[in-house]
Amino acid sequence: MADAPPTTHPPDPGHTAHRFFVFQELLGTPELARFYTDLLINSPTTVTAARDRQEFSKSTAYKYANTLAELGVAEELDEYEDGSALWRAKPVSGNWSDETTLKLGPVIVAVYGATSVEDDLELFVDRHGKAALAPAVTATIDYLKGNTARRGVADDLGVPAVEAIAVTQAIERIVAVVKDHDPTLDDVTFEVDVHNRAVEGAPYRHSDE
Amino acid sequence: MSELHPSPFPTALVLDTSFLRTVGGPGSDPYQTFVEYVRTGGRELYLSRGVVEELTEQHGYIGVDWVDRADTTEWITLVGDVQPGVRVHERLAAFEQTDPDDLRKTDSELPAVGVTSLGSTSHDSAGVLMDDRNAERAISGVIEDSYYEGRVWAIDIRTAIEFMDGDCGGPPPKRRAVTPRRTR
Question: Does residue B179 lie in a domain region?
Fold first, then answer.
């Protein structure tokens, strides 16, 4: 996995390995990924506010906040709101290259995080495995770019049309909420607007909504 | 086309799988609005062969058994074989950068069902209700400047539900000017 942004420093294998383990941790623990995503899209925010939005217990929320701090993707600030410390999460990104290159960023983390609360995503993973979600995210982004209809996604993924329809509907509202926080999508323009009513059904929301 | 409501709203409604997925079941507001509108407004619903096949294979992604309901109600009709719209099909193939022969025919079948409903019933206009902006765009694009412009519409689910909500006692919907019917 290699970090996308250019750097003047020589490549650092330790830095790359660290990012690998960050993604491994986030993608392997959906609830941690969900907490990270909430913290990211609402930064700066308090752990209390994040746990209220995502309905975690107090102990679980602080455990996840500390895990994210240890991973280096969130930090506690020296600022307070209603007596609680504010936290800021950083966007994580990287590429995984094998037969093809998979761009990893906050959107894909958010989608994996949502498998713990979205029935359609959970069903999709049950039937096709966790790995099938990554191409589903890529195909949904292709749909939002205006390049394919939902049934075209079905052909790309090799799944029944109704599954492609369901999974793209579940993923598109997450993309709509998280896109602006994902550096891997900075240069991507969407032709398809996700309707506000669809966004209201997303498992993530901004604190001002 | 989708943000503008056809006026009058079509009386024959062709339902895509994407619409049925998003409209949900008895516990959802859009479902209640939709069913109330259809029942009180005397609308007729049509399910294409491809959509019926998809609903049959859907295994848990849609809560309502629309195919079974078609067997037990008069306001839903299952439509058999129709000739898919060739131009719609070609446009979709171009969108998806694939060989038309390899493309699923369900999307291009939908406006064909709408056309069939106009020819075989007393309906003046047909609406294809869907939640797929790209398929909707392809269908709308080929209907424009055709004989069926103003008679067959591809309509986004949110546009449709907002209209139905208004028509069922809410605020009046925005309406676009009536498209003159072609006489050629």
Answer: no
